[in-house]
Amino acid sequence: MLLTDLPPELHQIITNNIPDQASLCSLLRTCHSLYFEAERSLYHTFDDIRSLKRQVLFLQRVTECPRLARLVRVYRIQPAPPGSEALMTFCGTPSSSSLYIPSSTARLFWTLLPIAFHLFVNLRVLALHSSTPYDGGAAILPTSRFLRGCSFQLETLEWGWYTPNEPRDLLPFLATQQHLRNISLRGWDAETFPGPAEYSSRIHQIHQHHPAHSDSAVHTKDNTQQITRRSTSHSQDFAEESDSESYHCGLSVLTGPQGAVKAFLPGHKITHLRWLADLDDPWCEGPGFDPDSPELIGSFKQIKFLKFGAWFARPSLGILAPYLGQLIFLELTDVDKVRKIFPFFCFLI
To answer: Which pLDDT value is given to residue 207?
Structure first.
């Protein structure tokens, strides 16, 4: 039986069961019958990044041919070396990084990346991680700006790149993501920036009171600058970046430190929470974190799967246990004194 005699329904099944890219490339060059399905499988996922050069070649290809960019569904830059060479290249110097790449290649990568983002109209999974320190300082590129104007609707976002003002650019983008189910954040200043649900609600209220084409457009922009908490300088272009539509998002899985938990739990039906305790979290049981705030109590009651703790000292489970009435799975990490947690299990029964 010749390959050309196979029914078209089997073409996609065949290419989906070819795991390695080398075989797909060979099939692409040698089999006309499976050309389009092999091409679709080849560009569906790009996460096997071993060098900046290979990453640039991929970005060059999809930016030169937008048709191929539309095939991309999953795009990842992994955090483990050498997967994050491209990110370390931007932040590193010849003296500080053994993975230093000539600056011309690095500049080409950062030039092509935002162009590719706008061409990935069918992207569903985006994972961007950095091996740089948590804060990063003012010199670190606010990569979230690359998401401005992107039309794709994500289902999963792993955003491991963080600068202090990163939420300023992420919020307008997140407000447009109606199909987002899973989000992972490296950091979020909840005292300065609201979560996407609260942000969208405030934007919607402003548009209702001040239509875009009214004479009070300037006044609308001034009001929009007050959307961020305790901040007068970080929300300068919020009104220009967001639609007036109300916010609807089925977010159910959240990973992040305390700031992300405080900002993203309210307004969403989070059932899976991975709480990554961070060195900067103010973990005094009094003013540091108040689970008694009305917007958090209802959110904690919805959680069914909780992974609690990470790289730094995990706070007492007793802070959260009284509010976890629906919990069916609990994973604790970085527990120094296991015996201290058992008295709190009575709240979970």
So the answer is: 62
